[in-house]
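ARCHIVE RECORD
Type: protein–small molecule complex
Small molecule: BIS(adenosine)-5'-pentaphosphate
Source of inputs: curated submission
Record status: active
Notes field left blank by submitter.
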Amino acid sequence: MNLILLGMPGAGKGTQAEIIQKDFGIANISTGAMMREVSRSDTDLARKVQNYISSGTLVPNDIIIEMLVQRVGERDCEKGFLLDGFPRNLGQGQALDSANVAIDLVLYLSISEEEIVNRMSGRRVHPASGRSYHILYNPPKVDGFDDVTQEPLIQREDDAPEVIKKRLDVYYDETEPLLDFYRNKNLQFIEIDAAQSLDKVTKSIRESIAN
Ligand code: AP5
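STRUCTURE (tokenized, with ligand):
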């Protein structure tokens, strides 16, 4: 089972990806996490990537596509994989086709822009693992600290209000056209109401994958 999670920034893709990975034993590939990791090294590439992330724009296709296609060829993807944050534009969708990467299911997490702003402004993350919390909807056991490592949580710099706006503009311009791209393909495309509670979204996703 190879699947794609599509949805606006902050729709809950990363939160659900972590649960699906555990439930179904498939590889969880987040290009956002990959890019944040690249940005932490001391190279020209890292500095370029960091600029794209902090301004809320996409990392160019020539940087990301090769990395992703190589990643899905790795051994842990043999039983299946979940793509969180890729593809992000039509060029990336077409690149998966050209590389003969078969996709069985696309889950579209649908939600309003208003709710997105609530979610991203209350998000806190554990930088090393990417684990994501929300101060109200999904709080850690101890306020401000990761449940697993007890290390401090931070606010992502691209969750600042002006960057959120830019990320939403980029989503409408570049990512939203992928919805029709996948609706018109010979694969399962399922829309999930991502405004539901976290547990309800998980239940809908589990049912979609099991069917
Ligand atoms: P990326 O990390 O992929 O960011 P994103 O797609 O903008 O998605 P987010 O991580 O912000 O949100 P999410 O949907 O995972 O939501 P989450 O589960 O955390 O990308 C970052 C950057 O990297 C990009 O801007 C770009 O520069 C670059 N990049 C990445 N991929 C790229 C690509 N393919 N091409 C080019 N550039 C790329 O949930 C959000 C909050 O809501 C959390 O606080 C969570 O606890 C809470 N929450 C989740 N579900 C619920 C619920 N049901 N009810 C209440 N609260 C909930």
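CURATOR ANNOTATION: The chain has a mean pLDDT of 95.
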